[in-house]
Amino acid sequence: MIKETITETDQRMKSTIQALEEDLSAIRTGRASPALVEHLAVDYYGAPTPLMQLASISVPEPRVLMIRPFDPSTLKTIEKAILASELGLTPNNDGKVIRLNLPVLTEQRRKELVKMVHTRLEEARVSARNIRRDVMKDLKEFEKEKLISEDDLKHGEEELQKLTEKIIESIDAVGIKKEKEIMEV
């Protein structure tokens, strides 16, 4: 019973890391990356739709993103979504494609982005700790209902703590990697 609970917890915590990585991929580094705009919500016939479902996104040059809508009539809506986003980029529209020129990041902007990364990392750590707290409660409940022994409870709590520490180390590693990407000139 404890093994299944720990395995399930491991999956939940790993999904936290996966969500963090997706979240951080949208934070801009010095290079152009489609991940920067893939999940940008565009109002498509009244429904917020991720940009990657409405257009192909390519990187023709290291600091340029090219967005080619599948339906040319969505060009203006995509442009509006980019302007309204927190990307701070100005789209160049030639009637067929949108080009996003990524300016060189200033030292101040890099520091702001690193702060944003740290905030997201802390949110991920809190999420992992909340999962640990919920599972601890479940384990104590199992013991109270005599489904597991006191020794099993102690063992389960130790396993859970090891797992949580491992996940938090992984979260920190993801953060360090992203920070290096941002600070790279």
Automatic annotation (TrEMBL):
It comes from the Bacteria. Signal peptide: none annotated. CDD domains: RRF. Its main location: cytoplasm. It is found in: Cytoplasm. GO terms for biological process: translational termination. Coiled coil: none annotated. Gene3D superfamilies: 3.30.1360.40, Ribosome-recycling factor. InterPro entries: Ribosome_recyc_fac (IPR002661), Ribosome_recyc_fac_dom (IPR023584), RRF_sf (IPR036191). Keywords: Cytoplasm, Protein biosynthesis. It holds the Pfam family RRF. GO terms for cellular component: cytoplasm. Residues 20-183 form the Ribosome recycling factor domain. GO terms for molecular function: ribosomal large subunit binding. Responsible for the release of ribosomes from messenger RNA at the termination of protein biosynthesis. May increase the efficiency of translation by recycling ribosomes from one round of translation to another. Belongs to the RRF family. NCBIfam families: frr. This is Ribosome-recycling factor. It comes from Leptolinea tardivitalis.
